[in-house]
């Protein structure tokens, strides 16, 4: 593998299948983070013939916040994760827009985390959304034991320096994208995270844009090069190490 995109939404692309197939030809792996349980089932079927794609079962907090998903979807995801090794996108978003649904979000994430803990699987991985909520996310991961038993990845980490330190101590992983490297805080976080916990992602596609394979590859390459420059290390060697690590996590 040349690169592995550890957080992408193929199901939200205009032609995710074409992107996945071209990525396979070009040696790029993809973790497709679903945003609803129904989306997970659809993606499982759509990308079943793509050996470079792994699909995670998720319920994005935004979909809870706006009422698109509710208790039935939480129940569905809790059942799915009992035998699903890859979980995401899940998590919490306490930004102003989504704060009114804080209680529902916490209940949902706690339910899913407990379901994972009650049904341990080798190689389980979670890709986690945590906006203004990293401490609460960590509380739940620690209370359920998931932080010790699973690979817990903070996607596009934007918390405080204290929260980052806590996540690092807990052994969490961090997937870095171009948006994170566009801020001074994000660049500093990318510099100090232990290399053996570093991953790459695109979080593609951006809203209301035509985003396909060419854009995905370019963004992964540019993010990888910027990350190497920030960390003062050889770009090709860093990209190779991150790709190997990511492929191992996804069993690619």
Automatic annotation (TrEMBL):
Pfam family, one: TatD_DNase
PANTHER family the UniProt entry points to: D-AMINOACYL-TRNA DEACYLASE
Organism per entry: Collinsella ihumii
Name of this protein: TatD family hydrolase
Keyword Hydrolase: yes
Signal peptide start-end: none
Residues annotated for a divalent metal cation 2 binding in this entry: 129, 155
Keywords from the UniProt entry: Hydrolase, Metal-binding
SUPFAM superfamilies associated with the record: Metallo-dependent hydrolases
Lineage: superkingdom: Bacteria
Annotated positions binding a divalent metal cation 1: 7, 9, 89, 203
Matches recorded under InterPro entries: Metal_Hydrolase (IPR032466), TatD-like (IPR001130)
Keyword Transferase listed: no
GO molecular-function term, one example from the UniProt record: metal ion binding
